[in-house]
Amino acid sequence: MAAASGRVGHVLLNDGKVAEFGMSRKASSGPAAARAYAAQRIETLRPDVVVTEKVLGNSKKGPKTRDIILAITSVADVADVQNAEVSRGHAHANRFEEAQDICRRYPAMRPNLPKVRRAWEAEPKSLIYFEALSLIESVFGTAFSGGNGDR
To answer: At a CB cut-off of 8 Å and minimum separation 6, what does 67 contact?
Structure first.
């Protein structure tokens, strides 16, 4: 699960393939809404592992988004799933290049690949899916092949 300004998103992998994904604007309204969203997604999708971002001091995430991430993590901590918190690496020049790279491994996400924005345009909402996939790959690696359950 990933959070950014104005949205919270999730991606479920099954055997290394995208099985389900979605996002919520309501979940980004505050910690209570984020907890409800996380609890509902965990209950419905039944993942083996929930991966969230470990927000470090040098993160560009704002205070509200940090609180939302902590709320999601708190739900995963008490749910019957493994919880993995990872800090996001920055191996690409920008998030659009990262999304393009991720699409090569998850072709099902290609319809959600946003066009590079101009400086004055808002960040495309669909980037949240690629952030979630990047978090998953931070835990399982880019060669993740699934194995014995859902991620």
So the answer is: 30, 31
In terms of pTM, does the model score above 0.85?
Answer: yes
Residue 75 CB: number of other CB atoms within 10 A? 23
Work out whether the CA dihedral 68, 72, 74, 75 comes out positive or negative.
positive
Nearest to 1 by CA among 26, 15, 17, 21: 21
**b/e code 14-52 from CB counts within 10 Å (16+ = b):** eebebbebebbeebbeebebbbebbeebbeebebebbbb
3-class secondary-structure state, position 9: strand
The answer, yes or no, to whether residue 77 has pLDDT greater than 70, is yes
Q: Give the number of other CB atoms < 10 A from CB of residue 104.
A: 10
User: 36 CB contacts (<8 Å, ≥6 apart)?
Assistant: 27
Using alpha carbons, list the distances in angstroms from residue 118 to 10, 76, 122.
26, 36, 8
